[in-house]
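Entry 14. Ran structure prediction on the chain below.
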Amino acid sequence: MYRVACIIACVVIGAAAGGAIFVSSSAFGGASSKQAPMTPSDIAALVAKVAALESIVADLEERKKIHDVYVYYGRGIDRLDEQSYRRAFWPDAQINYGTYESITVDQHWNNHMIQGHKVPDASWEHLLTNETVDIYGDVAHVEIYVTRMAVPKDREEAKSAGFFSGRYIDRLERRNGEWRIAVREFMPQFSIKGDVSSYYELADFFLKGAKSDCVREPWAPHDTSYVRPLNRRTDDII
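Output, structure tokens:
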């Protein structure tokens, strides 16, 4: 990649100076050291390819920024990381759950995350999949699937817990170079109930005797995923 960049730089500089451009085949990994002059049409073709690559890279960069919005959101809601959560939404965002409710970002955090998960649940996860993105200037439209699973603290309730799946249909806006969600519509797809009480057997098996905050409170900033650096253990107790 470095050699290609050097070649492109030489082409641009040479073309601007009006001189003849030579490219060694060895620069591309070939055995020959013969040099051949680049014609004006060769230069034009190379410049066009670079321009096309710049456009592709720019598009990929914006898509990566949009993808990161959902990484922030996922970590925010599952690790109760409010800072990460708020990086996903503009403060004036509207969040809609069908015809059931239309709420603000603050209401969503307080009612859904704190009262809806932290208070009644021992553990929960949101799986975000099948992301599609359409970008129109400073506006992007995203559809992403979500599956929500939770284990109630009440072990009897855990024997008949519900989990559901649906789609987030979002409009994101780019403001000052930053993408965040401005409007969200949630569309339900399915819901089932099942016995998830075996979670407690699994947790007891892996975490029996654990004393650290990472286990007692697996949310920001205590969860193990926030430990920097993650070192080797010095004893058998976490």
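Residues 72-207 form a domain with the Nuclear Transport Factor 2; Chain: A, fold (CATH 3.10.450.50). Will compare against last week's run tomorrow.
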